[in-house]
Amino acid sequence: MKTFPIGGIHPSDCKKYSKDAAIEQFPIPASVTIPLSQHIGAPAVATVAKGDKVLVGQVIATAGGFVSSNIHSSVSGTVTAVDNRADAQGNLKPAITIAVEGDEWLEGIDRSGVKRVVELSAEEIVAKVKEMGIVGMGGATFPTHVKLSIPNGKKAECLIINAVECEPYLTADYRVMLEKGEQLLLGAQILAKAIGVERIYVGVENNKPDAIKHLQGLAKGQKGVVIVPLKMRYPQGGEKQLIAAVTGREVPSGGLPIDVGAVVQNVGTALAVYEAVMYNKPLIERVVTVTGSTLASPKNLLVRVGTPMSALIEYCGGMEGIGKVVAGGPMMGRAVSNIDAPVTKGTSGVLLIPTEDALRQVEGSCIRCAKCVEACPMGLEPYLLNTLTQRGDYDELEAHYMADCIECGCCTFSCPSYLPLLDWVRIGKAEVMKRIRERAAAKK
Amino acid sequence: MSSQKLVISPAPHTHGSNDTTRMMGDVLIALLPALVVAVLVYGFRALVVTAFSVACCVLVEWFVQKFMLKGPSTLGNLSAVVTGVLLAFNLPADINLGLVAIGAVVAIGIAKMTFGGLGKNPFNPALVARVFLLIAFPVAMTSFPEAANAVTGATPLAMAKEALAAGEPVSTVMQRVDLVDMSLGIQSGSMGEISVVALLLGFVWLLVRKVISWHIPVCVLGTMALFSGITWAISPEEFMSPLFHLCSGGAMLGAIFMATDYVTSPMTKKGMVIYAVGIGVITMLIRLWGAYPEGMSFAILIMNSLVPLIDKYVRPRRFGAVKSKK
Amino acid sequence: MGSLVTTVLVVSGLGALLALLLFLVAKKFRVEEDPRIDDVEKMLPGANCGGCGFAGCRGMSEALVKSDDISSLYCPVGGGECMKKIAAYLGKEAAEREPMVAVVRCAGSCENRPKTNRFDGASSCLIASSLYAGDTGCSFGCLGLGDCATKCEFGALSINPATGLPEVDEEKCTACGACVKACPKHIIELRKKAPKGRKVYVSCVNKDKGAVARKACKVACIGCGKCAKVCPFEAITVENNLAYIDFAKCKMCRKCVVECPTGAIVEFGFPPRKVAEVEPQTAKTE
Lengths: 444, 326, 286
Fold this sequence. Notes:
Chain A is built from 14 helices and 17 strands. By secondary structure, chain A is an alpha/beta fold. Among the domains of chain A are: 110-279, Rossmann fold; 371-443, no CATH class. Chain A has a six-stranded mixed beta sheet with strand order 1-14-13-17-15-16. A four-stranded antiparallel beta sheet of chain A has the order 2-8-7-4, with no helix packed on it. In chain A, β10 (199-205), α5 and β11 form a beta-alpha-beta unit. In chain A, α1 (122-131) crosses α4 (181-195). The N and C termini of chain A lie far apart (46 Å). By secondary structure, chain B is an all-alpha fold. In chain B, 61% of the residues lie in helices and 1% in strands. Chain B is built from 15 helices and one strand, in the order βααααααααααααααα. Chain B has helices at residues 20-42, 44-68, 79-89, 97-112, 125-136, 138-142, 156-165, 170-175, 179-184, 196-208, 215-234, 242-247, 251-258, 269-289, 296-313; one strand at 6-8. By secondary structure, chain C is α+β, with helices and mostly antiparallel strands. Chain C contains eleven helices and nine strands. Chain C has helices at 2-28, 35-43, 57-66, 79-90, 125-131, 147-151, 178-182, 210-216, 226-230, 255-259, 275-285; strands at 100-104, 117-119, 157-160, 165-168, 188-192, 199-202, 236-239, 242-245, 265-268. Chain C has a two-stranded antiparallel ribbon with strand order 1-5. Chain C has a two-stranded antiparallel ribbon with strand order 3-4. A two-stranded antiparallel ribbon of chain C has the order 6-9. In chain C, β7 and β8 form a beta hairpin. The longest helix of chain C has 27 residues, at 2-28. Chains in contact: A-B, A-C, B-C. Chains A and B meet through β15, β16, α13 and α14 of A and β1 and α1 of B. β1 of chain B pairs parallel with β2 of chain C, so a sheet runs across the interface.
C-alpha cells in the first residue's frame, strides 16, 4: 500500500469518539461574529455598516487583493457592529457582528437535489469559486481560486483530493465522504475541469475502510477517478507528502505542488466548490468535528461560520473537566484562549482535552536519540534546528533547509525528553522566511 | 469565564509513547538475561558487583548534580542505572569493589557529568571507565574467576592470541574452546559479555520495543564477520574463524549495548552504518594485530570521537532535495 | 651512532621544511589591516553586545577607524568617556549622547493584572507572543517569560518572581538596547538616565479603549488625557488611548503622576512626598 517516502509517525487516531455521529445541522445562534480575515492573505474589506440588513449568502466583505477572499453573511439579520473582536487566540481582529433574524436566503441560491451537469467553462468555474469565497478547508485556508489559477509555463497533470484526514480525532471529512460522497466526487470533477486535467486521485488512509469502499463504489462509473488507499501514517495529509504518496513525485525543495503537475484540494473544499458552482451557495457553513476523550456526546456538526465555539462545546457536553481547547486537530491545531471566538472557514474541529492531559511533561535534555530525525517527513534535523534557533544562528538555519519545515509536529511528538522542538523551530522558520522575503524584495 | 484556567501551548497537543525513562527501562530489561547468565556462571558475587556499581553510579550522579551543577535531580531518567549495569558488565566478577567505585567516579563523574550530564558526553561513560581501569589496573581487570566448566582463567580471545603468537595452529587452539559453550556463556570474561544467546535475546527486545534500530549492531557484527572471514579464508591455520570472533570477548555486548548508546552514536542511519563499520574494522585490527586481545572498547571510543564529524557530513535524505542547486 | 645522526638530520630537515612552508603560507595569506583597529578595539569595553549596531566590538572599531565622520557611531556601554578617548586617539569628533537606561513600561503584576489562562509552551516571550495574545486580559503587556533577561549580556535584567515582571538594575544597565530588540511586545524603552535613578514615565503600553484596558489591568493607561492637560511642558501626548511622556521635554515635575487616575504613570528615585499633598488625589482615584 502506498505512503510517503520518509519520516512520519503513528499517533493513535482517536477517531472512534465521533466517527459514527452523522452530520447534524447545528441550530443558528442568536448572533454571529464573522472575522474579515479567515484565510491566508490580505483581509477582506467590509462592505456593510452597522444597521444594514443582510440575507444569508450576501457578500458582506470583498477580497482585499488577489490572495484574499470574499466573505458572505452566514445568517440573515441586522449588522450590529463592524469593529475589532478577540479571535480564538485573544488578539483583536476586524469582524462583522450580525444579530440573527429568521433564516432568509439570498435569491439564486438553489439547494435542491443533486445536480450532475456542469455548464460553466473552466474560467467561469474559477471566477465562481472566487466569487463564492471558497478557501482551503483543511486548515491552511489558502484561497482556492489562487490554487486553481495555474501560473504561466506550468501545467497541471492531475488533481488530488486530500481525503486523508491524518489528524487524530477529526472526522469531519470522513463523514462528508460517507454522507455526501457523490457531491464530493462531482466537486472533484468540477475542480478537474477548472484546471484542465482528466485524472483525479482521491487519497484515503486505510483507517477508513468504509469510506474507501463507498467512494470506490461511487467512482466506478466515473472516468479518470481513482480512489487511492494509503497506509495510515501522519502527516500524510500534508500536501507534499500526499503528492509523494499518490504519485511518487517529490515536490522540489522550495517548490510548489504545480512543479510536479499536481493540484491538491481538500474534501471539504471539493464539496464547497460543488455547492458554489451548482447551487450558487457561498462558503457560509462547514462541518466541524467537536470531540474529546471525555466529552459527553462528540458530534460532527454543520455549523454556520461565525457561530461561537462555546455554543458548540455546550451542545456537545460542556467544559466540565476540560483543561485545553484546540481549534483543529491535536497535531497542528491551535490552542484556544477565547472559547467565545467564532467558527471560521478553516475550523475543521474543536478538540477538548481533559485537564489531566492538558499540560505537557517536564522537558529533559536531548539524548541524541535521533527519534526526531527519524520522524521528520521532510528529512530535516529538528534537534539541530532547535539549538540553532535558540542560538540565533539564522544563516546556519537556512543552510540546514529550515524553510522546508512544514510544522507538522512529528519532532515534538516523538521526542522522548519532551523537548518543545517545534516551538523553537517555528520561530526559526518564521525568521528565516522573513529573511528570504527581504532578500527577494531587495532584489527587485 | 470558567474558574479553571485553560492551558495554552503551541501544537502539537499530543505526545507519542517515546520517553527517556521508558527507553532506559527497556535497556535494563534487555540486559536482564545477561545478568541472569552472569549470576549462574559466577554466582552471587556477580549480583553484588552489579548492584554496587549501580549504587555508586547513582550516588555520583546525584552528588554532582546536586552540589556541583546545582540542577534538579536527573536520576529519574534511569541513565545512571544503565551506565552502572554496563560498567559492571565490563568488569570481572571477582573485582575489588574499590575499583568498581573508582570506575563509577570515572564513568559518571568524569566521562559524563563533566560535559554537562546526559546527552552531552562525547564518549560512552561505561567504556571510558572500563578502559581507564584496564590501563590503570591491568592485572585485576584481566584475571577472571574460574567459571563453571571453563578451561582457564584467561578469556578465549587472550588464550587464542597467545597460542597463535606462540606458533600453535588454529586447529589445536580450537580443541581447547567449545563454541556452543561460549555462545551459552560458559567462558571466561567480563560479567556481562560471556553469553551470546542472552545478549541476542536483549537485542531482540530492544528491536521489538523500537529502542534501537538494527543498523549499528548488525553492521558492527557484519563487518567483524566479513573481516575475520577474509583473513580466515586466506589462512585458516593462522586466523581464528569469524564464528569464534563473534562469540568471544565483548563483540556482542559492545555491538548491541555499548555502540548503540544514543548520546555517542550518529544521528542518521547512514552515519550509523559508517560508524558501525568503523567499529568493526578497528576491533578486528586490534584483535588480530594489536597489543590487546580485545579491541571492542577502544574501537567504540575511537569511533565516538568521530561522531561529530560524521554528523556534520552525513545528512539525512531530504524530501524533494534539488540536486542541481549548489 | 649512525641512527642518531640520521634522526637528528631528518628531524631538523623536517623542521626547516615546515618552517619554510609556514612562512610562505603566512606571507601569501597575510591580510593588511590598519593597526589602529586593534588599538581601538582594546579601548572599547569588549562586551560584544551589539548595542552599537555592529555584530561585535571588532566591527565597531573597524567602522570607527574607517569612517571619517564618526558622529553617528556610539558605544552605549563605554559611554561618552570611552568615545572621547577613541575620538582623541583617532583625531576625530566623537558623538555626545546623554546616558540612557532601559525602562520596562508595564506594571501588570500578578496582582494588578489577573491571569486568564496558563501558558505551557517553551519558556520564551517570542514563542508565546507568536502564539496568542497572552495569559492575561491585556494583549499588550509583559508576558513575563524573560526574553529580555536572557538577552541581557550584563545581568542587568531579571524577572521578579513576586510580580512576574522584569526589573532593571540601573547600575548594571548599559543601554545597549538588546532587551528592547528582544521584547516582542515592545515594552522596554531606552530613556534618559537622570541622577539618583529618577524617572517619570507611563508604565503601560496598552492601546485598548479605556474600559477594556482597565478591566484587564488595574494600573493600565486608559488614555483619559488628564496627564497631558496638567503637564506644563507639553511633554505628554495621548495617541491610541495611550499616553506617552517625551523624556526630552519632561522636567520631572511629577504633576502627571498625581493626576493619573489609575496609577499608570509612575515615579522612581524621588524622596517620599508629604502625605497631605497626595491624599486628596488618591481619594479621588479610589
